[in-house]
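Service request form, structural biology core

Requester: graduate student, group of Dr. S.
Request type: structure prediction, single chain
Budget code: on file
Notes: please return the result as structure tokens.

Sequence provided:
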Amino acid sequence: MKKARSRYHVHAEIFRTGSPAAEFDDAKAGHPMERRLNRLEHIVSTYRGHVDLRFQNGLLVTFETADAALLGACEMQHRCAALPQIAKQRLALRIGVRQYLVRQRANDSPDNSRQMTAQMAIVDDGIIASEQVVAELNSDLRKLTRLLNETPAGIAAYTVDWRCEIPSAAFGGESFWPTAMKSVPEAPYLLLHHGLKTLETTQDNPTVTVGRDPSCDLVLADIVVSRNHCRIERRPDCIVLTDTSTNGTCVTTDDGVEVLVKNRSAVLTGKGLLFFGRPFKGERRGGVRYEAY
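Core staff response, request fulfilled:
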């Protein structure tokens, strides 16, 4: 008998919390609801989720892991919080996260997971996660959660402090080598960590491309990122980043050295963060973790 497989629903819904009597013209306001929904969909793609349903003011999304679901939810709040509000018509994002079991057979009885996840989206600009989700999180992400005294739908639930800085380890952070490898490879080698995605340069795959273009190996949907922002190559004796962008690439090493690479090449060594199209301002969020050997 196969073990039941778990997935994670995220219900993200945008609410108007301003004055009911205030006039609201979506077109004149610059389609703020649509802008937010588009941002949510980009984030879902980044964390390898799937949009099950897009309704008038929100999304129902499925993620493979609890970590991906929570990281995606936190990123949704950050990206929407950065958008301007409308006078007298504030838009708030409410998110619920819940675990559910994948149906194994066609005659399995359906559950009410979607409705229960929607019932957890009750806090303006907040994230509520079920007890099962929190139990599956890695230790770094679990530190962001706090048990609620009054729980939605009568189930144990946790609030998530998405405004707190998330440690880089929670985004993929430091890599680990297989136990069969006693040391890092002798040849030049690169690992890039973005969200739950990891890219590497090898002899068979010596180049990684970064940009907004869908054909890039690492696609970043950000206005400050160029369509073909940069490429990172594995050469015989080193790893080289070549920037071809408008805004440049900021390389910040773990030793605190910060270098702007713009329309030129630079050698990557050691470990650090890459910021595409913007400088490092003390906020690690949005950076791509690199390890170059």
